[in-house]
Amino acid sequence: MLRIAIRKKSLKLTALATAVALVAAPMAATAQENRGPPVLRDAETEQLLREYTRPILRAAGLEKQNIQMVIINQGVFNAFVADGRRIFVNYGAIMQSETPNQIIGVMAHETGHLAGGHLAKMREQMAQAQTQMIIAMLLGAGAMVAGAQGGGGNSGLANAGAAMFSAPGEIIRRNLLSYVRQQEENADKAGVKFLNTTGQSAKGMYETFKRFTEESLFAARGSDPYVQSHPMPAQRVAALEELARSSPYWDKKDDPALQLRHDMVRAKISAFMERQETVYRRYPMSNNSLPARYAHAIATYRHGDLRSALAQIDALLQQQPNNPYFYEVRGQALLEGGKPQEAIAPLRKAVQLSNNSPLIEMMLGQALVATGNNAYTDEAISILRAATAREPEALIGYTQLAMAYGRKGDYAQADLASAQAAYLRGDSKTARDLASRAKTRFAIGTPGWVKADDIVSAKPLPGQKSN
Prior knowledge:
There is one protein chain. The chain is mainly alpha-helical. The protein has two domains: 1-272, no CATH class; 410-467. It has helices at 16-24, 26-35, 43-59, 91-96, 100-115, 118-149, 155-197, 203-220, 233-245, 256-273, 276-282, 290-302, 306-319, 324-336, 340-353, 358-370, 377-390, 395-408, 411-425, 428-441, 447-457, and strands at 3-6, 38-41, 68-72, 79-82, 86-90. The radius of gyration is 26 Å and the shape is globular.
């Protein structure tokens, strides 16, 4: 299941390099924050990323911190950390990483930022910079006033005061950029250390940054190294190469089974996110590999040929009869093809084989609701409640739960679920209105009443509608 959602929580720092830009353009940065990033949800991809990062987080001493992997709906290569508990990665980074080791290296680098507490330290640096900027501006303003009061004889003092508005700002900006460059270098070193600890090669990390170097070499030519947010590419990659090559695991290859799973996820993302002609250019019909056939099956159903798609998915299942994500895709194709009753069986199998993935449970709940059969209502509610308890920020779970409760005639719970869905959408006014109505339907002090009251009392998040 590949779905796009808008994450309700705004990001205080989208990347360390962007954090420096906040000093120069706070208004633009705030507007960027308020929109929130478009997030992709897919059980298969998220599970693979969790498996990639789990040993790295363990090596960093962060295994118990519940660090989440979040996939951003952007085709460019990028990854960053935010709020100390999430690693964000663009789907483009997965697509452009030809081996597991390459994306694992990127995750190791980002874990280095988390382990080093770089976000908190960066906020401290920015707070200090803001204070320094304010002092410099006040001093400059004072000098200008003194120059003006002294008449023409003090014009030099007035001019000096005006200069103080600009010069300190440039010095502070350079200091911040230098600080960020040092953090990037430290994250590189930490990432290699974590990879060594887990017995993995740092070659993929080096290959990724080397590719960036080659792409940005012309753009960086002649630039001032002191106004770069990252170390000058050639210098950074040279240092990383020396460090990575010293590892005894430099030539270690990815396990073939892991490489296949990586290729399957890339094929799935391509089929869902790219144009049909692009998919078939990546995976021509002459390519009979499992990833290519996976991409073909998904692209076929997405472009309207359900019967052919089901035949292709069934052929995949003959080859891997215990692959939960093949059953998931089969169920999704039937559900989106207007056959919810037929989607139930493969989705049940997908839930079972995936160890009750909450995202797949939500799709099963959606299929049960979509049948319009009241005999499925209680089961749908039970499944959706369990899924939303483990994935409390998944909007689709609450919308389907509201429909199921409404069908049952439980309007208190239907209003509450609708309120939760509205809150996740960022519509705080609708959320409060629905939660207020839910409160009148619940007995005072009951769990439902308390949850509704929490929504009524919650302050709007940045960018949410408040009236």
